[in-house]
Amino acid sequence: MIYVTKPFLPPIGEYEKYIEGIWDRVWLTNNGPLVNELEIKLKEYLSLDHLLFLTNGTIALQIAIKALGIRGEIITTPFSYVATTSSIVWEGCEPVFVDIDPHTLNIDPKKIEAAITEKTSAILATHVFGNPCDIEAIEIIAQKHGLKVIYDGAHAFGTTYKGRSVFEFGDICTTSFHATKVFHSIEGGAVVTKDASLLKEMSFLRNFGHNGPETFSTVGINGKNSEFHAAMGLCNLKYITEILAKRKLIWDTYTKRLSHARLGSIQIDTDVVINYSYYPVIFESEEVLLKVIKELEGHKISPRRYFYPCLSTLNYVKHYDTPISSDIASRILCLPSFHDMSEEVIDMVARIVLRAINN
Ligand SMILES: *Cc1c(COP(=O)(O)O)cnc(C)c1O
Predict the structure, then answer these.
(1) How confident is the model at residue 338 (pLDDT cuts 50, 70, 90)?
(2) Residue 260 pLDDT > 90, yes or no?
(3) For the chain, which residues make up each domain, given as ranges?
(4) Does a cis peptide bond (omega within 30 degrees of 0) precede residue 309?
(5) Strand 164-165 vs strand 160-161: parallel, antiparallel, or unpaired?
(6) How far does residue 27's CA lie from ligand 1's centre (Å)?
(7) What is the pLDDT of residue 219?
(8) Which of 80, 81, 150 most suits a substitution to test ligand 1, by most atoms within 8 Å of the C-beta?
(9) Structure confidence by residue, pLDDT tens digits, 108-130
């Protein structure tokens, strides 16, 4: 079976070296030396001021919302993974969905202002498939209305905007290092901010609210990650240049093979260097999409309807009419893309897609 993605694994000996160190120190979790080393190396690699390594990308979103003291309504995108919306609801806030731009698939800033009410306190938007949101337009709106901005950068590891890591933008940017993401630590995630006091607040939140061995500054949660996860992150970070280069090669190969099919894709701004971590294709209709899926599954290839369903249709949120997101969600598919994918397999997937479309 070929799945939409397959985690990268480093040579096992490299992981074992780190594990031996853990055995020597008998320090398994609670801000250990490997967690510290990973945070330092990630900040170096991405040129960031502040980053905290956390259990996962969902806790990162929840900690970001909590740390900024956000209440009431949060303007968000209906086209993302469910964690973007569920974190808002879990934190006792209300998601207000604003439709997406049909070309970038990110929240459409032109539609944000009409959704602002006196209860709005923040914008939480996803850099979909690693493609940055319209950061500058969102910043102008946020400033004008005094709103906080959180970006869900779960897809965006390695993406740059005007030469800077896309994680630098917004009050807080969160990310995920889950095994299915382009850079992973098995489970893991992070929060990034430029604000040192906000970072400190989030480091308390990550550790039950402790601000000393016997004192608590606030209600916290357990968002700490372990030495074992940090070890996997440290191993994988050594290969990130290769991993990103391979994703670009896969993207370019698919694009060549599928060039005559006139499939929709995402529009990438000239100021952006994207990480190419997903290969989304937009079909003419849901009917064609279902035909393609059936054909691929017949060949033991499992693509993924990503993102589907549209989040404004979840049973625990107020419903909003987001026709562009609903339409795109019904006919978009991510084709397999993973590090050890051979050219033959890319060619085979492309041939099957072409055959299904033309039938
Ligand atoms: C994967 C993902 C998350 C959740 O990250 P986890 O580390 O799996 O908790 C959140 N948002 C988006 C857009 C994602 O793709």
Answers:
(1) very high
(2) no
(3) 12-98+105-237, 240-358
(4) yes
(5) antiparallel
(6) 28
(7) 95
(8) 81
(9) 999 999 999 999 999 999 999 99
Q: Taking the CA atoms of 53, 59, 62 and 67 in sequence, report the sign of the dihedral they define.
A: negative
Question: How many helices and strands (H and E) does the chain possess?
Answer: 11, 16
Q: Which CATH superfamily is domain 240-358 in?
A: Aspartate Aminotransferase, domain 1 (3.90.1150.10)
Ligand 1 center to residue 59 CA distance, Å? 10
Smallest CA separation from ligand 1 atom 13, residue: 81
Q: Is 133 helix (H, G, I), strand (E, B) or coil?
A: coil
The mean pLDDT of 68-81, rounded to a whole number, is 98
**Nearest residue CA, atom 6 of ligand 1?**
57
If pLDDT is split at 50, 70 and 90, which confidence band does 359 have? confident
Tokens of 226: 């372990």
pLDDT of residue 3: 87
Please tell me the pTM assigned to this model. Answer: 0.97
CA distance 18 to 35: 12
Residue found under tokens 């989304």: 280
CATH 3.40.640.10 assigned to 12-98+105-237: yes
User: Which mutation among 55, 84, 159, 325 tests ligand 1's pocket best, with the greatest number of atoms within 8 A of CB?
Assistant: 84
Which residue of 176, 180, 181, 225 sits with most ligand 1 atoms within 8 Å of its CB, as the best mutation to test the pocket?
Answer: 176
